[in-house]
């Protein structure tokens, strides 16, 4: 079924109430907030002289020690869900040697969330891998899938009780591009559009996801398993429909097709990508841009949800990331209203959307820099004191009301 946007409903229409169990919360990633993840490949890259990484993660937001404070903020805001990742490099810092202490640490986080009335949404792989895994060749090395599945199986003490939603791999489409991005440089790929994902890596990641899904179901068949995709919201200009479809397939749609048998699929959307007959286009002159150089386009998330719903042949959708990097928090509030309105319209047109998790809970390490501030909560880089922004309180107010607002 093709779902088209409804544009003729008047603003006086009552907002659509969200279904029971709707996930209202925020997301984080371990390497971006924990600090001192010294056994990971990214830490090695950050601390290698001459690497393309300008700024190392260091202490990050010190959330490894302050996770309880972060969860308390979510509760105080009135949110009900917290998506966080557990770090493979901490759990298996050297090949075959698993840390019971780190498994216990992440289990304390799960228990801490449950005790506070928060539902933990746990991601098992969010970009980083152990240094030893990278050194042996990463995802395309022999036995990579088996090694990942072994790690997944060892997370049973963390996810086996009280965790209803687990993400196997975050944004595998971006993971498959990492080699090309590293060789080109981040600025170069922004100029030329996303590079072509490595085909061998794509194939392995799909295999790893399906194998991990089976391993998680063996731990507890009631766990809802999915993975999350970086949605680019490709919009074809007249005459560029075929170019757009060809461009989108290896960069997004092949990963969505792999989610057709999942319990849910994560939509992660920030802006749109207009595509002409020669490929992706820059934002039009004069449009509002974020600190990351993205067009301010809040309705992208609703369009991403529709596309995902169609390509997956109706796998339920959870928005696992959506946000923007700005210094003016009033723009984040405006973006939030526009994004939720676009989701409300998609739901009214039949798209099964089961949650909204904002990116990010905290201003954090954005893979080479602390400058892009995506957080609902500001973090003092010296003292680590947390300061919820007006946008955090606004999302909490909306969540408490149980319905999407009209902008």
UniProtKB/TrEMBL annotation:
Task: List the Gene3D superfamilies hit by this protein, alphabetically.
Answer: Glycosidases
The family database entries (SUPFAM superfamilies) matched by this protein are listed as: (Trans)glycosidases (SSF51445)
Q: Which Pfam families does the entry link to?
A: Glyco_hydro_1
Keyword annotations: Glycosidase, Hydrolase
**Keyword Lyase listed:** no
Question: Which GO biological process categories is it annotated with?
Answer: carbohydrate catabolic process
Q: Name one GO molecular function term.
A: beta-glucosidase activity
Annotated Gene Ontology cellular components are:
cytosol
The record's listing under PANTHER family reads: GLYCOSYL HYDROLASE (PTHR10353), LP05116P (PTHR10353:SF36)
Its family?
Belongs to the glycosyl hydrolase 1 family.
Q: What is this protein called?
A: Beta-glucosidase/6-phospho-beta-glucosidase/beta-galactosidase
């Amino acid at each position: 079924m093709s779902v088209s946007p409804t544009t003729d409903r008047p603003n006086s229409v009552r907002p659509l109430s969200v279904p029971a169990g709707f996930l209202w919360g925020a997301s984080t990633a371990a390497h971006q907030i924990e600090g001192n993840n010294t056994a990971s490949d990214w830490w090695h890259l950050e601390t290698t002289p001459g690497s393309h990484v300008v700024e190392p993660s260091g202490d990050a937001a010190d959330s490894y020690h302050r996770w309880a404070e972060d969860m308390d903020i979510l509760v105080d805001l009135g949110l009900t869900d917290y998506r966080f990742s557990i770090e493979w490099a901490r759990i298996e810092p050297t090949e075959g040697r698993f840390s019971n202490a780190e498994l216990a640490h992440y289990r304390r986080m799960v228990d801490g969330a449950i005790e506070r009335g928060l539902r933990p949404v746990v991601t098992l792989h969010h970009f980083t891998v152990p240094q030893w895994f990278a050194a042996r060749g990463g995802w395309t090395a022999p036995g990579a899938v088996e090694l990942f599945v072994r790690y997944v199986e060892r997370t049973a003490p963390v996810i086996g009780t009280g965790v209803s939603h687990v993400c196997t791999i975050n944004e595998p489409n971006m993971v498959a591009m990492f080699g090309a991005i590293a060789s080109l440089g981040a600025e170069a790929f922004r100029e030329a559009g996303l590079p072509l994902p490595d085909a061998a890596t794509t194939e392995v990641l799909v295999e790893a996801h399906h194998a991990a899904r089976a391993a998680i179901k063996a731990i507890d068949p009631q766990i809802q398993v999915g993975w999350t995709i970086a949605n680019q919201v490709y919009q074809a200009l007249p005459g560029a429909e075929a170019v757009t479809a060809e461009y989108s397939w290896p960069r997004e749609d092949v990963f969505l097709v792999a989610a057709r048998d999942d319990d849910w699929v994560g939509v992660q959307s920030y802006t749109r990508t207009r595509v002409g007959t020669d490929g992706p286009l820059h934002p039009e002159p004069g449009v509002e841009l974020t600190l990351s150089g993205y067009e301010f386009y809040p309705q992208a998330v609703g369009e991403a949800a529709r596309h995902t719903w169609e390509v997956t042949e109706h796998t339920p959708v959870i928005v696992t990331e959506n946000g923007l990097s700005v210094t003016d928090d009033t723009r984040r509030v405006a973006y939030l209203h526009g994004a939720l309105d676009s989701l409300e319209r998609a739901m009214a047109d039949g798209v099964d959307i089961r949650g909204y998790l904002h990116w990010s809970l905290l201003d954090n390490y954005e893979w080479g820099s602390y400058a892009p501030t995506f957080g609902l909560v500001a973090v003092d880089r010296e003292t680590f004191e947390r300061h919820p922004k007006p946008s955090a309180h606004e999302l909490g107010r909306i969540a408490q009301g149980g319905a999407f607002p009209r902008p």
